[in-house]
Structure formats: C-alpha cells, structure tokens
Amino acid sequence: MAETEKIQKVIARSGLCSRRKAEGRIALGKVRVNGKTAIIGQRVRDIDEVTVEGKLLVNEKFEYYILNKPVDVMCTRADKHAGKIVVELIPTKARIFPVGRLDQKTTGLIILTNDGELAQKIIHPSSGLGKKYLAQVAGMNDKKVNALRKTKMVDGKKIMAPGVKSLAGNSLEVTVHEGINRQVRKMCEQAGMRVISLHRQSIGKLELKGLKQGEWKKTTKEALMREIGL
Predict the structure, then answer these.
(1) What is the pTM of this model?
(2) Is 142 tagged catalytic?
(3) Choice among 48, 79, 103, 115 that is catalytic
(4) DSSP letters of the chain?
(5) What is the residue-averaged pLDDT of the chain?
(6) Does 3.30.70.580 match the CATH number of domain 64-125+206-228?
C-alpha cells in the first residue's frame, strides 16, 4: 500500500467487497479507523487499524493462482452440506477467493487471488475479456447453432454477440463476455441444445495449458496481467 491511500480502495483491494460496496458500508458508519467512524475518501496508512463491521482488516501479501477446476468442486460454499471448494485445493494461508465462478459440473480455468482490486478489474464488463468454453452438447444441428449465435438475452439481461464455432463430435466452442450464472448452459438450452459437459479453456488471452484437472500453478500479478491481456 502507498504511504496513504483512500480507505474504500484499501477495503476493495483486500477482497472483502467492491469499492462501491465499500463506500456503502462507510456511508452507513460500519467502517472505523483507529476506533473512529470513517468517511468516504479518508486516507489511511499501513499502521492504521481499519475495521469493517467490527472485523479487523488485515493487510496480506497478494497471491495469484491459476487452477484447472475439476468437476464436482464448488467455487463457493453455498450451504453447510456443500462438498469441496476450489480454495481448498491450494495450500495457502492467504484468504484467496475465485475470480468469477464456474458451476459445480463445469471444469477448467479459474483464477484465485486475494487481490480484490485486480479481481474486480478482470470480471468487470469494461475489461472486454472473453471467456472461451468447450461444450459437448446433445441435439446439435445447424439451425440450433445459428440460433445460439443470435442469442441476445440471458436471464433478461442483454449480452454481447457470442462467438460460436462448430466442432466435430457434437461439440461447440463458445466465447462469452459476461459473467451470468450458468450462462453458456442457458444459452444452449434457449437454442434447443443440452450441455453434456462444459470446460472453460481461456479468459482473455490466458489459456489453460499444462494443468490436469485439480492441478494449479502460482503466478505473479505482472505475469497474470500480461497473459490475460490487461
């Protein structure tokens, strides 16, 4: 952290929440600096004690990981009965979290970090980063593939035109730019196809190479930004 930095940026960079949500918590009086209620835009130092809703904000060294998510591993613990989650696959004490999500049955590339600011930059629509998936589907034909290419709405939300390429073996390469829950599956269903398996191959220019399911590698912020295309 710089010598002094705006408090909402410090909170966002910790991964606790986005900068906008941090400002909301500050406005509600839920953030304190050295025991005193904070204000939006207040500048803090490394040595200042920042609490959010009574919990101490701890400055951590940022860590960055690339993981090939296996099937049946969750990105979040939706309930107490949920199985293994992605953060448990990486042996670190850092409070890392997945950047975006893949549903339980989807495999492939996922980024994990405790750098909240970079995470927001990656998932924000303004980044323009495409996510490329390999989907094996049932019920595929030219008419349905063309319908998939023309998808304009998912869950009532407008989307950018997806990139769709037909492959052998009833498979499709689908590129989307949004982060809507189960987006590719829903798009295929709307076009009359059922997804049998789904695998994320890339985010931006970052491709999943050399990692088997469940394997991961540690990287740096500089390398990650360069490889992803930010």
Answers:
(1) 0.78
(2) no
(3) 103
(4) --SSEEHHHHHHHTTSS-HHHHHHHHHTT-EEETTEE--TT-EE-TTS-EEETTEEP------EEEEEEPTT-BSS--STT---BGGGGS--SS--EESS---TT-EEEEEEES-HHHHHHHHSGGG---EEEEEEEES--HHHHHHHHT--EETTEE-PPPEEEEETTTEEEEEE-S--TTHHHHHHHHTT-EEEEEEEEEETTEE--S--TT-EEEE-HHHHHHHHT-
(5) 91
(6) yes
